[in-house]
Amino acid sequence: MERRRSHRRSLKDRPEWSNRLADARIGRGLTQDQIASELSLPQGTYASYEAGRSEPPIAVFRKLHQVLNLSLDWLLLGQGEMQHATTAPVRDADDAAIRQAAQDIIRALDRRS
Fold first, then answer.
1. 0.85 exceeded by pTM
2. Which of 26, 38, 44, 71 is deepest in the core (most CB within 10 A)?
3. d(Cα 90, Cα 106) in Å, to the nearest integer?
4. How far is it, in rounded angstroms, from Cα 61 to Cα 101?
5. How far apart are CA 105 and CA 33, in angstroms?
């Protein structure tokens, strides 16, 4: 009988940003269902981000920044403070800059792997 391999990653095998995402949610006392609802995502999709099984699109990183008031530098790179310095919402004009920065960060992290 062939043994099925688990698709679950151990904490040490998950991308660091996914661990930080889970830490931010738990630190705010929220469930995965609550965050998924705020992001307009199925709970399973959000859970796959925290488990490191998939990477969110840039639009989700933007929403995480807004909903959880997270610093993207902290979330993606582990640098700086968790909470963004200001609670002002991201303007649409900032969207392109955020998208480019997140893509650059993801590429840099992929090169490290």
1. no
2. 71
3. 20
4. 11
5. 27
Q: What is the pLDDT of residue 102?
A: 79
Q: Which of 80, 46, 78, 44 is nearest to 63 (CA)?
A: 46
Contact in structure between 90 and 98 (CB atoms under 8 Å): yes
Any idea what DSSP says for residue 40? T
- Would the pLDDT of 11 be above 70? no
Beta-carbon contacts of residue 106 (< 8 Å; ≥ 6 apart): 55, 76
CA gap 55, 48 in Å, rounded: 8
Residues 6+ apart with CB under 8 A from 41: 60
Q: Which amino acid is at 78?
A: G
**Rounded to whole angstroms, how far apart are CA atoms 75 and 16?**
9
Domain range annotation of the chain: 13-112
Q: Select 13-112's CATH number: 2.40.160.40, 1.10.260.40, 1.10.760.10, 3.40.1190.20.
A: 1.10.260.40
